[in-house]
Amino acid sequence: MQIDSSIRLFDCAKKVMPGGVSSPVRAISPCPFYTSRAEGPYLWDADGNRYIDYCLAYGPMILGHCHPAIASAAADQMSRGWLYGTPSLLEVAAARRISRLYPSMEMLRFVSTGTEATMAAIRVARGATGRDKIIKIEGGFHGAHDSVLVKAGSGATTLSIPDSKGVPVDTARNTLQVPYNDLDALEKVLSSYPGQIACLIMEPVLGNIGPVLPLPGYLEGVRRLTKEHDVLLIFDEVITGFRLSLGGAQELFGVKPDLTTLGKIIGGGFPVGVFGGRRDLMEQVAPEGGIYQAGTFNGSPVSLACGMATLDILEKEKVLDKLNLTGKQMRDGLQEIVADLGYNYHVVGIASMFKIFFGDEPQDYAQALKCDKNSYLAFFRRMLRAGIFLTPSQYETDFISAAHNSQVIETTLEAARSCLKN
Ligand SMILES: Cc1ncc(COP(=O)(O)O)c(C=O)c1O
Predict the structure, then answer these.
(1) Taking 90 as the threshold, does the pLDDT of residue 59 lie above it?
(2) Which one of 76, 94, 287, 334 is least enclosed by Cβ atoms within 10 Å?
(3) Of 227, 218, 220, nearest to 178 (Cα)?
(4) From the CB of 208, is ligand 1 less than 6 Å away?
(5) Cα 400 to middle of ligand 1, angstroms
(6) What is the pLDDT of residue 163?
(7) The CATH number of 4-66+318-421 is which of 2.40.10.10, 3.40.50.140, 3.90.1150.10, 3.40.630.30?
(8) Residue 60, ligand 1, Cβ within 6 A
(9) Do 122 and 140 contact (CB within 8 A), yes or no?
(10) Ligand 1 pocket residue status of 238, Cβ below 6 Å
(11) Atom of ligand 1 nearest to the CA of 272
């Protein structure tokens, strides 16, 4: 495989962009490939190599790349203008539609990214309760803002330390962490800080170390405990929204949070974020209330037009039902391969998400960290050379789009068998 152009681009990029990339996860070692175009399930790099894409921009591209209906929705909206700075017809229709699919989101606001959505949802929780502390799940990712860029110390109740330089220790101090799938640890933290915790923010299915799935009864237990301790529950459905079901994980598992954040798919591949929830909480957001949130690009018309066009297709063509079958084909196929080869690896996933864990199936972050991430990386590199682009880390979820047909999956499984065997 020739990668001369990507190497040249990497050399140039490193001089003007940290690590030669716009986001750290894209920094594939020793050299990222630089994409020149995308279509359907494929990406092409600057050297003309074609890859089957399971990263799918980390989730948004559920219909595959360059879907004609989304391209025409974008062009159609562009012909009517692409940024108004006023309320628009489109955002009213989009808000009503999302609220219908997510009944827990009685009111909502559009922002530009998932990061902004979680930042605002946490502010709403803090503003509404008058409390500063929040709980997050170890290994849960909610974007790159200060309150959530924090990892746990040695124990669940240990005060946290910042995960990034530049996060004030005073901010990190207010972020408590608990392991996923551990109701006892959650109860302990909730009991240790009575009247001080504004919210628990969590991905209902941990997408950023896995996927790691909730044990039976876990999400219901979380809801019960947060209610008992009068702590708001935020479901961060930036990944799971519109993928696990149209109404997200909360619909699939039947657990109703107080606040929800959405992103990725609902922008149709354009930047978007949404936060919303109980009316009594959202009525406290400015201009109705004193919790401030604002943004030049909030409710971006092109993002909303493409998000609504995506939703039209997901709904009318029952895409999620088909995608779930493709997801199962992929997971079953991979599981069969690792079993044939006699490896103690585990294929985990749900709906159209999957991952091969190079180790036991994890139930939380600490268990996921025990996987053999170096062997995963060696596998990732072999797959890349075979023209398959998996997510470049043991701790990222792989996604399937509607453009990945059975033939594409079979090609991938053949490559996986050969790369795992070697
Ligand atoms: C669960 C979750 N929340 C929030 C975010 C942040 O979203 P964005 O990258 O759009 O800022 C991500 C990003 O991957 C995510 O996976």
Answers:
(1) yes
(2) 287
(3) 218
(4) yes
(5) 18
(6) 73
(7) 3.90.1150.10
(8) no
(9) no
(10) yes
(11) 10
